[in-house]
Please model this.
Amino acid sequence: MKKLYLMIFILITGSVLMACSEETETAETEEAAIIQVTNSSARQITSIELKLYQNDMVQASPTAMNADESLIVMGETLDFEILTQDINFDEPVIIEAIAMIDGVEESAGKTAPMELSQGENYRFELARDPEMQFREVQEN
Model:
């Protein structure tokens, strides 16, 4: 009988812990803004860094690359998750994209000041015409 109670206790505890972890993941996603950056150039990029400026200071600078360390080729998209602890969502932000190409950091430019909202997705591209440019993708 004790084994039955122990098994029931373990099952209930496990269910409660799983439910709590799912709620935490959902809450974190809702508190974040997602910035998607697509390589629309013919350049092969090693990594992409986003510098987020507020009040003329870098508040966050996440960097992303392919998990297998392969080059980011034309058409590939990387996601950056910007959390409430990274920036103040109540203030405008300027985003600068920096691409690592052949071991050299190349700035693709900055956005105009913009508002980011929690739970929203923002799409940008790195294009080359003829210089590297960082620009927002306009929805049709």
